[in-house]
Amino acid sequence: MNFRYPIFLDLSGKRCVAIGEGVELARKVKSLAEAGADVVQVSPQAFKPDDLEGCFLVLTDQKDNSEVFRLAEQNGVLCNSVDDPEN
Q1: Do 32 and 9 meet the contact criterion of CB atoms below 8 Å apart?
Q2: Domains defined for the chain, CATH in brackets
């Protein structure tokens, strides 16, 4: 069984990238900004791997989050895929 471990993060001044659009992602972007994160929102059509450079946390809300998840793991970036436990 794959257990999900809840954590609290100090995001003050940390670069966080949000990829996608929609109500759930907008809520998460707002909460990241309120936590003091340096948030950059990228449309799925404009996303490129370099967008994760210097990134601490990436949030992704797309039909297929697998590529962003793969890149995040490869680069040691925390990843939250909205409503997508596999990624």
Answers
A1: no
A2: 15-81 (3.40.50.720)
Instruction: Express each pLDDT in 21-43 by its tens digit.
Output: 889 999 999 999 999 999 999 99
Angle in degrees, CA 50, 5, 49, rounded to 5: 5
82 pLDDT tier (thresholds 50, 70, 90): confident
Q: Convert the pLDDT of each residue in 65-81 to its tens digit.
A: 999 999 999 999 999 99
68, 81 Cβ separation under 8 angstroms: yes
User: Of all helices (H) and strands (E), which one includes residue 67?
Assistant: helix 66-75
Strands (E), 1-87: 15-20, 38-42, 57-61, 78-81
C-alpha–C-alpha distance, residues 50 and 21, integer Å: 19
- Report the distance separating Cα 83 and Cα 86, nearest Å: 9
